[in-house]
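A sample copied in:

***
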Amino acid sequence: MTHASLLAVETAEHRAAAEALVAEYLRWVGHLAKSEYGLEFDIDAMVRSDIDDPAKFYPPTGRFYLVRSDGQFVGIGCLKQLSPGVGEVQRMYVRPQARGAGAGRLVVNRLLEDARALGYRTVRLESLRALQAAHRLYRSVGFVEIDPYAGNSMSGYQDTSAHAAYRASAVFMELRTS
């Protein structure tokens, strides 16, 4: 991968590319969740919410980025508001062929800059325990593990009987921005 750049999801072309990457990511992580933890969630509903809900990842309270490298979109990353002063990083994904070249770090650093600019004193995230490379990246920029927090992103996309199993399968992390 040569130089990577970030583009805010603003145009129809960007939305289509973002939708494809969100769906790719959620299918991949959904397969991992099912095979590793026996968990299932509604991928189609998640994709629709991510792309169509203007209050989720879009300004003024959120951010939605595509990563472009060598003329192709190879990753995504999002920031949303959980509550006043608290943001959440979601949908961090870089295609396998583009991993290891700094695209993930580029996205997470930009999301943290944006979080500070938006006045988020705390930034949280959740991630399946199996995604250890992602956890190393998050720790390297200052995230630490915390107990599960209210409003986690999976609660609306899986059966309520699976919530405890999901919390046990995930790592919850937080970073104080100030």
Notes: Strands lie at 4-8, 63-69, 72-83, 86-94, 122-128, 144-146, 170-176. The radius of gyration is 15 Å.
